[in-house]
Amino acid sequence: APLRECEALPGASGRVCVCVCNDTEPIVLEGKCLVVCDSSPSADGAITSSLGISVRSGSAKVAFSATRSTNHEPSEMSNRTMTIYFDQVLVNIGNHFDLASSIFVAPRKGIYSFSFHVVKVYNRQTIQVSLMQNGYPVISAFAGDQDVTREAASNGVLLHMEREDKVHLKLERGNLMGGWKYSTFSGFLVFPL
User: How wide is the angle at C-alpha 18 spanned by C-alphas 160 and 192, nearest 5°?
Assistant: First the structure.
């Protein structure tokens, strides 16, 4: 249960709930931590309470986009976990994508959009790439045409995620040895729940 305290705000009729909630990011106003418990977020991330107070929370913005700037060179770790690693972040609003592990961790409950584009070149093997949520495959994509020199496995999805859920890409089949740069992995919070 969240810790709650109530305090009167100047000019407000009644009392406003000030609390720390497990699934709600606190908003700092004039040095105080405030979450209006009977509020609802709007589409643009603003929070409007029943008192008509509207506050825009910067933590409502979550987005990342990562790419490979070099050819994929499998490491001992990538061979063991089959995680597809990225080495350059283009966007990381909220810092919820960890470049070292190439894992995105949801900062809050909500609907998230993810897309990926994994390129293979000069590789006659079929590859299968899966987007993993908490260790389970959610969607997959294949690239297996043996008559082309470059091909991409691409897909996208909307996911309902809880706070601390994790998402990453896994190579389920084939290998990316010599796989070309320009592979991308992106995601963003569509709206919080």
Answer: 15
Coil, helix or strand at residue 106 = coil
**Which residues, 6 or more positions from 80, have their beta carbon under 8 angstroms from its beta carbon?**
none
Rounded CA-CA distance 94/65 in Å is 12
**Concatenated DSSP letters of 26-87:** -EEETTEEE--TT-EE-TTSEEE-TT--EEE-GGG--EEEEE-SS-----HHHHHH-BPP--
SS3 17: strand
Bridge partners for 52 per DSSP? none
Give the three-class secondary structure for 172.
strand
Question: Which two tokens mark 106?
Answer: 């949801």
The structure's pTM equals 0.67
Give me 73's structure tokens.
């060179």
Q: How many C-beta atoms surround the C-beta of residue 181 within 10 A?
A: 14
CB under 8 Å, gap of 24 or more: what pairs does 137-146 form? 137/170, 137/172, 140/172, 141/116, 143/118
Place of tokens 């909307």: 158
- Look at residue 89 and give its three-state secondary structure: strand
Give yes or no for residue 110 having a pLDDT over 70. yes
In the structure encoding, which two tokens stand for residue 90, read together?
A: 């283009």
Of residues 162 and 72, more confidence is placed in 162
